[in-house]
Amino acid sequence: MGLFEKIIIPTDGSEYARKAAELALDIAEREGASVVVVHVIPIVSPLSAKPKIRAPEEILEEAEEIVEEIVEMAKDRGIEDVKDVIVESTSVVEGIRKVAEDEDADLIVIGTRGLTGVKGVIVGSTAREILGRVDCPVLVVPPGD
Hints:
Blueprint: E1 6-10, H1 15-31, E2 34-42, H2 56-76, E3 82-89, H3 92-102, E4 107-111, E5 116-117, E6 120-121, H4 125-131, E7 138-141
Parallel strand pairs: 1-2, 1-4, 2-3, 4-7
Antiparallel strand pairs: 5-6
């Protein structure tokens, strides 16, 4: 085993998350690490400004498709120890933090939309919040060309 034995890959199905997943899988291949693909289904308050009403089955099916894409990418690379976790949480950050803790993660690799400001790249809000909430290293992958 290498430096990282268990890598958490949070995904929301976006291109940013896919790019981060590709890098995480590169690391997992090199390190011989296991991978946990995580998707958090946000629990929306009925008092939210514009709650999107969808059937629970539809939400779960979409979540399964999102994680399955990354799981298949891992298997295509020959990574055998791949797990997918779908959690419901009032906070995406809390959902990821809990999985990282439960799985005893060595690394979290997360994509960011990389909003830019005067001083350069500003880490996205989810990635920034995770940085202060977990006990393992976090690799934040900015958007690129």
